[in-house]
Amino acid sequence: MTASCGAEPLHLQVNGRACSIPGVPREATLLHLLRNDLGLNGPKYGCGLGQCGACTVHVDGVAARSCVIPAHGVAGRAITTLEGLGTRGRWHPVQAAFEDAQAAQCGYCLNGMVMQAAALLARDPQASEARIRSELSGNLCRCGTHIEILDAVQRAAVRMRAETNR
Predict the structure, then answer these.
(1) What range does the domain containing 43 cover?
(2) Other beta carbons less than 10 A from residue 126's beta carbon
(3) Half-sphere exposure of 100 (CA within 13 A, CB side)
(4) Cα→Cα distances 160→93, 95, 103, 106, 156, Å
(5) What's the whole-model pTM score?
(6) Which residue numbers delimit the 2Fe-2S ferredoxin-type domain (predicted)?
(7) Are residues 103 and 148 in the same domain?
(8) How far is CA 161 from CA 45, 59, 135, in A?
């Protein structure tokens, strides 16, 4: 991302780390900042309209579409991307469940599905199948792995409840 006249530095938390990015243009989206300036490839550019879910991140723990959020609009806030949700060998329960259920085909929707599901289960670890379906209804998967995705989220819910009951 190139700096524009009058661009000011942006301060925010990304995946638990304080970031200060100089020269962020006022028109920059959070998605472009994450991908282009910070090199985070979890959130994907899908539609650019906030309708497909591929760009979903957490802003202060709430699932949000980063392609339509002005980067300066989240100054000082905590942003979590797929890379910050869990790490290889220590996956978040939703990531582990997606792997176990083989819920990805092409993988393009995976970021949005995982991030949306993680936000749901953080709020409601008892989420019913109907609630899960409703929550994920705004995330598009063109490969048709919807049944595997639903299975993965249900597995994650079971894991998260078991971890809570320990």
Answers:
(1) 8-84
(2) 9
(3) 15
(4) 7, 12, 18, 26, 6
(5) 0.91
(6) 8-85
(7) yes
(8) 32, 23, 19
The DSSP symbol for 139 reads S
Considering the domain architecture, whether residues 91 and 80 belong to the same structural domain is answered as no
Q: Determine, yes or no, domain membership for 3.
A: no
Q: Same structural domain for residues 31 and 76? A: yes
Question: What string of DSSP letters covers 84-119?
Answer: HH-BTTB--HHHHHHHHTT--SS-TTHHHHHHHHHH
In a domain, 2, yes or no: no
What would the pLDDT profile of 80-100 be if each residue is shown by its tens digit?
Answer: 999 999 988 899 999 999 999
Identify which of 141, 87, 75, 155 has the alpha carbon closest to the alpha carbon of residue 112.
141
What pLDDT digit, counting tens, does each position of 131-162 carry? 999 999 999 998 888 899 999 999 999 999 88
The structure tokens listed for 131 are 């609630």
72 pLDDT more than 90: yes
Residues 61, 92 within the same domain = no
